[in-house]
Amino acid sequence: MKALVIVAHGSSREASNQEVIALAERMKESLASEYPLVNTGFLELAEPLIPASIEQCIEKGATEISVLPYFLSAGRHVQEDVPHEVQSVIAKFPQVKIAILSHIGGLPQMDNLIKEAVL
Amino acid sequence: MKALVIVAHGSSREASNQEVIALAERMKESLASEYPLVNTGFLELAEPLIPASIEQCIEKGATEISVLPYFLSAGRHVQEDVPHEVQSVIAKFPQVKIAILSHIGGLPQMDNLIKEAVL
After folding, report:
1. How far apart are the C-alpha atoms of B1 and A99, rounded to whole Å?
2. What is the pLDDT of residue B59?
3. Helix H or strand E segment including B111
4. Per-residue pLDDT tens over the stretch B54-109
5. Are the beta carbons of A89 and A98 closer than 8 angstroms?
6. Is the overall model pTM greater than 0.90, yes or no?
7. Which structural domains are found in chain A, ordered by start?
8. Which chain A residues contact residue B115 at CB under 8 A?
9. CA gap B32, B97 in Å, rounded
10. Which of A40, A45, B14, B33 has the fewest C-beta atoms under 10 angstroms from its C-beta?
11. Helix B109-118 crosses helix A109-118 at what angle (to 10 degrees)?
């Protein structure tokens, strides 16, 4: 069973975390046939943290997990922190397929999104 | 003359700032007929800062400036800090039309971008 974990930084401002959770809820509906499980995970300041979020999916039966970094820039969080958190779960559950997708800001479609936004 | 100012947080990691600058360069090409000027502005840690970036556009003749917050979440930066920085320029140049657009993460097209990324 496939799971999608949307990973964000986490904020001390609860409304920001709720934006990510709402996004995951919408994805859960529209991706239901492809990803029976959609969860959110935070790097810090909000829960569940990334390892706990991935483990929740595994507990629910996920065998293949895609981790989507909801970050615009390939900074330290995307290049080091998120992989580090994910790696801890991979080491613990080697039988589960866990892959980190490109961060949102690295997607080629981002250019079109911005063009639509400003025209 | 219209100008687009893409506003990002700014990072101590220069490669992250360069990502934003590269995005602006691509937008400059593809939006040339609509926005003769495209600039980047940073909230902190990189230059030009937001007010300086907007003023650079005004010096080059911009009379109508759209400020695009390149942020995923409507946190304090989007709700308070960016408007505060922009307001300082509006007060100084009341004859220039300056508007802040929706932050990237608040665009309805974001859902489709994510769906395409994970399918």
Report:
1. 46
2. 98
3. helix B109-118
4. 999 999 999 999 999 999 988 889 999 999 999 999 999 999 999 999 999 989 89
5. yes
6. no
7. 2-118 (3.40.50.1400)
8. 27, 30-31
9. 19
10. B33
11. 170
